[in-house]
Write a structure and sequence with these properties.
alpha+beta; 13 helices; 5 strands; elongated
Length: about 375
């Protein structure tokens, strides 16, 4: 007969597995994480930042289909596989949306696609540019599942690659907030007295400043950019972690196992890192999940204001900013699709945070 483990971690895991919304959110986060990691493999447009523009097919509805002529370039692409996976494929090939074509005397004549019933320009290209004159394999029907944005870029590809920003800022911001928050919270809670009063003064001052305003100030000080936003968001979220850690350590330092560690002559650093922190990780994990969701919302707000990830980098917040006026122009999907993506990811982290809180609660 197999012996069932009664450790706290095993009990918490079993309780978490019984929470339907927690498990669903966990797998949803895993799936979105894999999609963001392999975004350039999955995305129809694998160019860097999915920034291939075709103004002739801008703002098309989901499911739009058009013939696409690919004119190969003679420039050889020497990118490594890792570079393509992380940064996209740098290609000099030319893709042209066309409405019709015909071949005559080794020359391909085509008509460029035009919207609103207009007739596109007639152009031609010699068949010698195609390997073995096989032009047919370079003319394919392309379907834009989510449609195209106002610049004629594939919206599905932009959404997939934009998920990287949300996941990256979540992990990096939470990591920064944990390092700073645990450090200051541990010192304030363990030593108390004037040290505690000074750190709490810093926490209260930082806490009193509106988060978005503080992030904007730090971003403007560090400059606009990808990493600057990550650092700015992380530097504004540590106060919540510090308050939680401080409160937990004030309670834990009076426990018998801490008294025993002191009696054995262990130094303060070892007592905090080896004895106290491992026993108060439950609330830290819960608040980290909530901070992950908050970081995604803050980044989206900064991108909407134009001080987040800068063009042509794909970001869900920037996509909403570029297309929010299309809501009243009959094409709301351009702003609604990235908005739904933000909502789903934030909701998943909030639900998994609630599930972890219930699973790690020793009183239930």
């Amino acid at each position: 007969m197999r012996k069932t483990s009664d450790s706290l971690s095993q009990l918490a895991l079993r309780k978490f597995k019984k929470n339907f919304w927690g498990v669903l959110s966990f797998w949803l986060i895993v799936i979105i994480g894999l999609l963001s990691l392999f975004a350039y493999v999955i995305a129809p447009d694998d160019s860097p930042n999915a920034n291939e523009m075709h103004l002739s097919i801008h703002s098309q509805r989901p499911g739009f289909e058009v013939q696409m002529l690919n004119i190969p370039s003679e420039i050889e692409n020497r990118q490594s596989l890792v570079s393509k996976l992380l940064f996209g494929t740098q290609s000099s090939d030319l893709d042209i949306p066309i409405s019709s074509y015909e071949v005559e005397n080794n020359v391909l004549y085509y008509t460029e696609y035009a919207m609103d019933g207009l007739v596109g320009a007639d152009k031609s290209v010699n068949l010698r540019v195609f390997p073995n004159n096989d032009y047919k394999s370079y003319i394919q029907n392309k379907t834009f599942v989510f449609g195209t944005d106002k610049y004629g870029r594939d919206l599905l590809s932009r959404v997939l690659i934009g998920s990287r920003i949300s996941f990256s800022i979540g992990f990096i911001a939470v990591f920064i907030s944990l390092i700073i928050g645990i450090f200051f919270g541990s010192i304030a809670g363990y030593y108390g007295g004037k040290i505690d009063a000074f750190i709490m003064w810093i926490i209260n001052v930082t806490w009193s400043i509106p988060t978005l305003l503080l992030v904007i100030a730090i971003t403007l000080a560090l400059g606009k950019g990808f990493w600057q936003v990550f650092i700015a968001v992380g530097l504004t979220m540590w106060v919540e972690v510090a308050r939680v850690v401080r409160g937990q350590i004030i309670s834990a330092k009076e426990m018998q196992y801490v008294t025993a560690a002191r009696a054995l002559g262990f130094n303060d650093v070892r007592i905090i890192t080896k004895h106290i922190l491992p026993n108060i990780m439950a609330p830290i994990i819960v608040i980290s999940a909530a901070n992950f969701a908050a970081a995604i919302l803050i980044e989206s707000g900064l991108s909407f204001l134009g001080i987040g990830a800068q063009p042509p980098m794909a970001s869900w917040g920037a996509m909403i900013k570029d297309h929010y006026n299309y809501i009243i122009l009959g094409k709301p999907f351009l702003a609604i699709i990235p908005g739904i993506c933000i909502m789903v990811l934030v909701m998943a982290f909030m639900l998994i945070g609630n599930a972890l809180r219930d699973a790690l609660d020793v009183k239930t």
